[in-house]
Design brief:
Elements: E1 6-7, E2 10-11, H1 21-51, H2 60-64, H3 69-72, H4 75-78, H5 82-97, H6 107-137, E3 141-144, E4 154-157, H7 159-164, H8 168-176, E5 185-187, H9 191-226
Antiparallel strand pairs: 1-2, 3-4, 3-5
Helix pairs in contact: 1-5, 1-9, 5-6, 6-9
Keywords: Membrane, Transmembrane, Transmembrane helix
Membrane topology: Multi-pass membrane protein
Pfam families: L6_membrane
Length: about 230
């Protein structure tokens, strides 16, 4: 196959490997877009997960052990946070170093970005599952169990599973779509809305992270084959 040739209008023929500089440029630009987006999403995931530990901004419930088990699992930190930030840092650094094509676009770096993106995808998927379970089960709060014929008076627990006794899908539909039931929680104040909003954010963020991580996996595989430089 004839080697690539250049003209005043740019590259016109394929390189010996059959790869155009346009393809390499696309791979590098994609990394510079995906990386910062994953950085922002990873930080947002960690922030939402940490806020779940402090209902209403108060720390006493965490110190007293009155935080739901799903919030204590902090899926937005170890799932949608740390692995996503590691991948995003590498992807961003690689993408911007490749802007000048200064010995950066090695296939080894593209392979590393693919591996880190796979870990980020798995972490985001775990965050999605745990956040969905946390949203379905509802928060841990101090509520009046006697209102539901349980005969225990006021206690700490999960009122929505106890109150309905229904399967998870029906239970989630009951409390998520009926805000009148949210007042059952006496303490912490506004805990149901706090729980719903933050777990919903984690769900949306983890979905976005999975999409971007999957795109970077494809981009990294293309970089392994094509390289990342934008032309010399």
């Amino acid at each position: 196959m004839p080697p690539a040739q250049s003209s005043s209008e740019g590259w016109t023929l394929l390189t010996p490997r059959g790869i155009t500089p346009r393809t390499e440029m696309c791979v590098g630009k994609c990394s510079r877009i995906v990386g910062p987006c994953l950085l922002a999403l990873g930080m947002l995931s960690m922030a939402a997960s940490i806020l779940l530990l402090f209902p209403g901004g108060a720390s006493k419930y965490l110190l007293e052990g009155h935080i739901s088990r799903h919030a204590l699992a902090v899926p937005g930190v170890w799932g949608g946070g740390v692995p996503v930030l590691l991948a995003a840092t590498h992807i961003t650094a690689l993408g911007w170093r490749c802007a000048g094509c200064s010995n950066c676009g090695t296939r080894w770096n593209a392979f590393i970005s693919t591996v880190l993106s796979k870990l980020a995808f798995l972490g985001a998927a775990a965050c999605f599952v745990l956040s969905g379970v946390g949203l379905t089960n509802g928060p841990l709060c101090f509520y009046n169990a006697s209102e539901h014929s349980l005969g225990h008076g006021a206690l700490w627990g999960y009122p929505f599973p106890d109150a309905t006794g229904q399967v998870p899908d029906a239970r989630a539909k009951t409390y998520l779509y009926d805000r009148h039931t949210w007042s059952i929680c006496l303490e912490p104040e506004g805990i149901v809305a706090w729980n719903v909003v933050l777990f919903s954010i984690l769900l949306l963020v983890s979905v976005a992270e999975m999409v971007l991580s999957f795109l970077q996996i494809l981009n990294g595989c293309l970089g392994c084959l094509c390289g990342l430089c934008e032309g010399k």
